[in-house]
Amino acid sequence: MTGAELRHMAHALSLGRRGLGLCWPNPSVGCVIVAGDRIVGRGWTQPGGRPHAEVVALGQAGAAARGATVYVTLEPCAHHGRTPPCAQALIDAGVARVVASVQDLDPRVSGKGFAMLRAAGIEVVTGMMAEAASEDHAGFFLRTRQGRPFVTLKLASSFDGRIATASGESRWITGPAARHLVHGIRARHDGVMVGAGTARSDDPALTVRGFGGRAQPVRVVVSRLIDLPLMGQLARSAKDVPVWICHGPDAPSEIRKAWEGLGAKLIPAALQGRQVDAASVLQGLGKAGLTRVFCEGGGTLAATLLAADLVDSLIGFTAGLAIGAEGRPGVGAMGIGRLIEAPRFDLVETRSVGADVLHRWRRRAG
């Protein structure tokens, strides 16, 4: 592969990331079409999942697509859904070569898109920048393989790991630059999730702010009994911005009806002991279409997800202050007696964000 080819695929990956959080349950794909040394078309999966990236790029390229090379971050689809398959659109456009990062894991597509292209005499090259593409499509792949979304757990804490004082004061531990970045991360996820305790104590809006008039992620609350304020921000805005509540089988029917009347979607989940089962919650969210979920606490929900080995990525913001042992911990009790029992993550990056430090971690392989 040449430097120019890598740059074109990197461009396609950057385009695909523009659709993250906007096109679930579809993957967010990027596509670049090159004729000679000139880019003649580019596109990414549009909000709601249609049209696909290849169709957008072909629409820009027009007749210039004939004989061109297509760089795409995921195998072109081969099945008839609401629209014809992208593999057929590429064939009809007369492209000469398709360079793809990774094969689709959806059984309706997997390998079939490449086979269609090759049968039509189009050269197919796979594996270019596959690691980066696999990370971008991790949520779509997880939902396809395991039926659950990719989970990112975020904690904003003091130097000594506290997310609030003993009285519950938490605004603001981190500075404005970190908070702005959190809104940007929210925007790249399909849903933002909190536990019932956070919803009650903080009365959060959980919306993306400071990034223009973009579509909002689904607000997800995990609450066994749906004991949430009916006059809070989530309740007042449920008809305008989606609110999904994952609840236990023993949630009172009158409370369920009240929230449904406000516009919320209710997702039943099984119990594990006295708590809502985390795996059941994620299966429900996956069935409803979510591929990427951003969990912002609180401590009990964070501990439940970590203990169940359901956290794929950690994002921490650490501030330069200490609150002390009486403060509220970022993660609740997990019942760990030995270090070998603790979930481990690999460091991906560390950098300054304003006056705070960001550190990002990835689930350890194996």
Automatic annotation (TrEMBL):
Zn(2+) binds at residues 52, 77, 86. It comes from the Bacteria. The keyword Oxidoreductase applies. Keywords: Hydrolase, Metal-binding, Multifunctional enzyme, NADP, Oxidoreductase, Riboflavin biosynthesis, Zinc. One of its GO terms (molecular function) is diaminohydroxyphosphoribosylaminopyrimidine deaminase activity. Binds 1 zinc ion. NADP(+) binds at residues 156, 172, 198, 202. Pfam families: dCMP_cyt_deam_1 (PF00383), RibD_C (PF01872). One of its GO terms (biological process) is riboflavin biosynthetic process. InterPro entries: APOBEC/CMP_deaminase_Zn-bd, CMP_dCMP_dom, Cytidine_deaminase-like, DHFR-like_dom_sf, Eubact_RibD, RibD_C, RibDG_C, Riboflavin_Biosynth_HTPR. CDD domains: Riboflavin_deaminase-reductase (cd01284). The active site is at residue 54. The keyword Lyase does not apply. Substrate binds at residues 170, 186, 206, 209, 296. It catalyses: 5-amino-6-(5-phospho-D-ribitylamino)uracil + NADP(+) = 5-amino-6-(5-phospho-D-ribosylamino)uracil + NADPH + H(+); 2,5-diamino-6-hydroxy-4-(5-phosphoribosylamino)-pyrimidine + H2O + H(+) = 5-amino-6-(5-phospho-D-ribosylamino)uracil + NH4(+). Residues 1-117 form the CMP/dCMP-type deaminase domain. Its EC number is 3.5.4.26, 1.1.1.193. Its cofactor is Zn(2+). Pathway: Cofactor biosynthesis; riboflavin biosynthesis; 5-amino-6-(D-ribitylamino)uracil from GTP: step 2/4; Cofactor biosynthesis; riboflavin biosynthesis; 5-amino-6-(D-ribitylamino)uracil from GTP: step 3/4. Converts 2,5-diamino-6-(ribosylamino)-4(3h)-pyrimidinone 5'-phosphate into 5-amino-6-(ribosylamino)-2,4(1h,3h)-pyrimidinedione 5'-phosphate. In the N-terminal section; belongs to the cytidine and deoxycytidylate deaminase family. PANTHER family: 2,5-DIAMINO-6-RIBOSYLAMINO-4(3H)-PYRIMIDINONE 5'-PHOSPHATE REDUCTASE (PTHR38011:SF7), DIHYDROFOLATE REDUCTASE FAMILY PROTEIN (AFU_ORTHOLOGUE AFUA_8G06820) (PTHR38011). This is Riboflavin biosynthesis protein RibD. It comes from Puniceibacterium antarcticum. The lineage of its organism: Bacteria, Pseudomonadati, Pseudomonadota, Alphaproteobacteria, Rhodobacterales.
